[in-house]
Amino acid sequence: MITITGLKKTYKHHQVLKSIDIEIHSGSVTAIVGPNGSGKTTLLKSILGLVIPESGSISVGGSTIKSSDQYRKQIGYLPQNHGFPANLKVKESIKLLQDLRTDVKDYDLELYEAFGLEEYKNKQIKHLSGGTLQKLSAAIAFMFRPTLLILDEPTSSLDPSASILLKDKIRKVNNEGVTVLLTSHIMPEVDELADEVIFMLEGCVRYKGSVTELKNIQETPSLEKAVANIIKMEFSPCLI
Amino acid sequence: MSDMIKIFKYQTRDVMRSRLVIFYLLFFSLFTSLLFYFNSETSGVIANILSINVSFMPLLTLLYGTTFYYNSKGYILFMLTQPVKRANLVTGIWLGVALPLVFSQLIGITVPFLIFSNLDVESLPAIGALLSSSFFITLIFLALAFFIAILQDDKAKGFGLSITIWFLLALLYDGFILGISVFFADYPLELPLLIISSFNPIDLARIFCLIHLDASALMGYTGAIFQDYFQSITGSVVSLTALTLWTLMPLSGALYKFKKKDF
Amino acid sequence: MRLISLFSLILLFSISTLASTIKVGKSEKIKSITTAVSMAKPGDTILVLKGEYLERDIKIQKPLIITGVNLPVINAGGKGSIFFVRSNGVKIFGFRLINSEVGYKFENAAIRLEEVSNCTVENNDLYNNFFGIYLQKTTSIKVVNNVIHSFAKSETNSGNGIHLWNCDSIQIIGNKISGHRDGIYLEFSKNNLIQGNSAKNNIRYGLHFMFSDNCSYFKNRFSENGAGVAVMYSSKIEMVENLFFNNKGPASYGLLLKDINQSHVSKNTFSGNTKGIYMEASGRSLIEKNIFVKNGWAIDLMANSMDNQFTGNSFYSNNFDVATNSKQNFNTFTENYWDNYAGYDLNKDGFGDVPYHPVSLFSVIVTEYKPSLILMRGLFTKLLDLAERVFPSLTPKQLIDEKPVMRRIV
Fold first, then answer.
1. Domain range holding B224?
2. pLDDT digits (tens, 9 = 90+) for C130-156
3. Contact residues, chain A, for B82 at CB < 8 Å
C-alpha cells in the first residue's frame, strides 16, 4: 500500500528523518510509535503530502505522491487537532468536504450515526467540545470510504465509549481490507489494534515488524515493556 | 465548479458570521451616519472615511489577516490532506475572507449615503473611488497578511512584521516623500512624486480617491496637475492597474511560499 | 392761410412740448431705428416692433425712450457698436443686441454711454458682443435685469460684460453676465451699488474693482469664473450676502482683496473655491459672519495685511482653514466656528477653552513645498499636524482664535 524509500527531511539543520525505508502492506494495521520528536509526525505528514521530502520517494497505492494530489482520494485522515472553520455549522463542514469529494457518492455514515453527531449538525464548530470535534473528525475520516486510513492519536480526546466505537470501526473496515496507519502513545491500544509496529527514535526506524514478534524477542507479553526495552538498548545511530 | 470556488463559498459563509464583519457593518454605518450628522457635505464625509481607509484599515486588516491565518492552521492543514491544489486552497480562503469584509464595508458606507445624502451625479465618481479604495486596501493587506503568516509561523513575530510593514507604508513612506519634496524643492516634482507614490498601495489608493473628490481641483496649480493625471482615462487605468498589481504581488508571494511550505 | 399758419404753429408747439411716439417696424412707415432716432424730438418714445434690424452705431443725442416690443433684434453684423448714448435721460428697454465688433482699437459695446447721467438700460438681451454695456464718465445710471452673454476665449481679445470707467452712483441690479472677460468691471468709479447680479463663466473675474471707493455689492452670485471677485486699490467696500461658488483653477479664488481698506465682508458664502479669500496688503477691514465651506484654502492671508478682524465666521469641510506666508500675524481671529477644532468647553459658555490654531503645519509645508500636496489626508500629515498643535514651532504663534465657537453659526 505504501512504499517509502530513502526518505530524508531536514528542518533548519536538524535532520528529522534520516533515510527511512518502509513498506506497509495492504490490509495491515501498522502503528508508528516513539517518543515526541522521534519523527513519527513528520513521517505521517510526508505520506499525506504536508511535508515536502528532501529526498527519497513515497508511493501510495502504486502512484508516487509527487505526481499529483489525486492520490489523497484513497486516504481518510484523522488529525490530532480538528480542521474546520469556526463559524461553520457541523453540517456545512461535512457538506464542504462532500462538495470537494465528488468522486464518492455512497458515504460511510456509520460512525457519524454511532457518535450521535446528527444532533449537533446545526451547531457551529466553535460551540463544540473537544471530544465532539474529535468524533466529527473521526466520522469524516471514514466517510469517503478510504482504502488507507491515517489516524493521528485517534482516541486521545475521546471518552471511553466513543473510543470503543472508534476502535470497533477501525477493526471492521480493516477486515474489509482497508489499510490502517496510526500513531499512538497508548501501548495497550496499539497492542489491541495493530499487527505491525514501527518504532522510531531520533529520525530513524529502530524496529519494524509484527507486534507478536517484538513481544517474543523481548520475551514479554506486554508491548509496553517490549518497547521500553528497545529504548533502553544502546543502538549505534540508525541501524536496525 | 472548481475547488477554489467551493472553498471560497464555504469560507465566505464562515467569515460572514465573524465578529469583524459585524463590527465593520456597525462601525461604518454609524461612523458614516455621524459624519453626515455633523457635516452635511458629501465630500467631507467621503474624505473622513478615506482617512480611516488609509490609516487604520490597513493595520486592522493585517492584524486580522494574520490572526485569521494562525487560527485556521488546523483547517488549512486538514484541507491540504484533501485532493485539492495548494494554490486553489489559499486563493479560495483569501477571497473567502476578503470579500465578506469588503462587502460589509461597502454596505456600511453605502446605506448611510443612500439615506442621508442627496446622491447627486457629481459625487458618484468620488463615492466610487472611495469604495474601490476600500476594496483594494482590504484585498491587498489581506494578501500581505497571509504572506506574512505563511512566512512566519511564530505569531508574535508575525504581528511584529505586520505592524512594521504598516508603519513603513502608512507613515514612513510619506515622511520619505516629504523629504524628497523638501530636498529637491527646486525641481519639478509633480510627476516623480506621482510615480513614487504608486509604489505604496496606501498612497495610491488615497490619491486615486482624493482626485475624484474634487478636493484637488481646489488645490491650485499642483492639485490641477495631479488631477489632470488621475482624471484622464490613462491615469485611472494606470492607477487601477497599479492597485491590481499591488493585490497580485503579495498574493503570488503567498502562493509561492505556500506551495513550498512544510506543514 | 392765416388759419393754416396758426394751426401749424399750434402743431409745432404741441410736438415740441408733448412727447410723441414713433413706431418702427418692417410694415411701418419708418423701418429704421436710426431714422426714427434722428427724426425724434427730445422726450419722444420710439417703439421698435419685433424683427431683425441690421443697424449699428445708433447715436442718441437727445433724451429718448427706446423700447423694444417682443424683443426685436439689432444685429451689428460684426462692425462697430450698436447704441451710443450721448445724452442724459435716455432709456433703452427690451432689445436683443447682437454681434458688435471685437476690436483692439476701439472698445465697441452693445450699449455705450458716455458723459451722460440719469439713463436706464433695462431688460435687454446682449449676445455675442465685445463689451456688453460700457459706461464712461457717467453718473446715476441704472443697469437693470439685462442678460449679457458672449464667447470670450482669452483675456486679450475679450471685453467686459458691464464696464464702468470714471463713473459715479451707478446701480447695477439683477443682471446675468457670462462669457465675458470680467463680468462687471469698475475703474475709478465711486458710490456704486451692485445687487442681485449673477456672473458666471467669465474668464477673468466675476466682478472687478480698481480704484473704486465707497461701493457696495449685495446678494450677487459669482460662480465658475476665472476668479470670483477681485477688489483692488479701493477702500470702503461693502460686500454682503454674496455667494462665491466654484471659482477654481491654478490661481483662482472666491474673493481677492488687494490693497483694500476699511471694508466690510459680511454674511457671504464661499463654497468650492480654490481659495475662499485671498488677502494681500489689506487692512482695517471686518470679515464677519461668512460661511466658508469646501474650499481648498478658506483664507490665504498674506502677512502684509494687518488690523483685519475675522469674527463669527463658520469654517467647515475646507482642505485648509488658513494659510499664510509668515510666522507673524497682525490680524485678529475670534469667535469663529472651525470644524477642525478638537478642544472642549468645560464651563459651557459656548466657546472652546483652548485656542484654535487655524494654520496647520501641513498648510505651512504645502505653501513652501507645493508638490508635498500629494500627502494630503494621509496619516503622516495628520500626525504632523497633531504634533504641531501640541508643540507649535513652524506655524504662526499669534495667529489663533482665542475663543473658538463650539457650534456652527448658521
1. 3-259
2. 999 999 999 999 999 999 999 988 888
3. 72, 97, 100-101
Quick check: A87 and B14 CB within 8 A?
yes
Contacting chains of B (3 CB pairs or more, <8 Å) are: A, C
Q: Which residues contact B128 (CB under 8 A, 6 or more apart)?
A: B212
**Arithmetic mean of pLDDT, C32-53:** 94
Q: What was the pLDDT predicted at C4? A: 63
Q: Are C197 and C220 in contact (CB under 8 A)?
A: yes
Q: Cell 494574520 maps to which residue?
A: B66
* Test the B interface: residue of C275, C365, C373, C386 with most B CBs within 10 Å: C373
Task: For C298, name the nearest residue in chain B, comparing CA atoms only.
Answer: B218
When pLDDT is averaged across residues C376-382 and rounded to a whole number, the result is 89
Which is nearest to B226 in space by CA: B215, B260, B23, C399? Answer: B215
Residue C342 sits at the chain B interface (C-beta within 8 Å): no
Question: Looking at residue A240, what is its pLDDT?
Answer: 45
| CB < 8 Å from A in window 69-88 of B | 71-72, 74-85
Res C14: pLDDT: 52
Residue C402 and residue C262 in one domain: yes
The parent domain of residue C283 ranges over: 226-359+395-410
Distance CA C152, CA C160 (A): 9
Contact A49 B74 (CB under 8 A): no
Question: Residue C18 falls within a domain, yes or no?
Answer: no
- Per the CB < 8 A criterion, the answer to whether C202 and C180 are in contact is yes
The DSSP bridge pattern shows strands C147-149 and C176-178 to be parallel
Q: Under an 8 A CB cutoff, do A69 and B84 touch?
A: yes
The CA distance from C1 to C111, in Å, is 47
Tell me which chain B residues have a C-beta less than 8 angstroms from the C-beta of A137: 78
Q: What distance in Å separates residue A222's CA from the closest CA in chain B? A: 34
Can you give the CATH number for the domain in which C150 is found? 2.160.20.10
Domain count, chain B: 1
Distance CA C397, CA C267 (A): 28
Taking only the tens place, the pLDDT of each residue in C338-375 is 988 888 999 889 999 999 999 999 988 988 888 888 89
What's the one-letter identity of residue A72?
R
- Within the 265-294 window of chain C, which residues sit less than 8 Å (CB to CB) from chain B? 272-275, 293-294
Q: Which residue matches cell numbers 482504502?
A: A147
* A75 vs B contacts (CB less than 8 Å): 81
Instruction: Detail the DSSP E strand segments found in C302-396.
Output: 306-311, 314-316, 320-324, 330-334, 337-338
Question: How big is chain A, counted in residues?
Answer: 240
Q: Which residue of B has its CA nearest to C276?
A: B218
Query: Of A49-58, B90-99, B159-168, which range is least confident?
Result: A49-58
A77 to B83: CB separation less than 8 angstroms, yes or no: no
Q: Do B174 and C378 touch (CB under 8 A)?
A: yes
pLDDT tens for B137-196 read 999 999 999 999 999 999 999 999 999 999 999 999 999 999 999 999 888 888 888 889
Of B72, B74, B263, the CB nearest to A45: B263
Give me the domains of chain A, ranges plus CATH numbers. Answer: 2-232 (3.40.50.300)
Determine the pLDDT at residue A75.
92
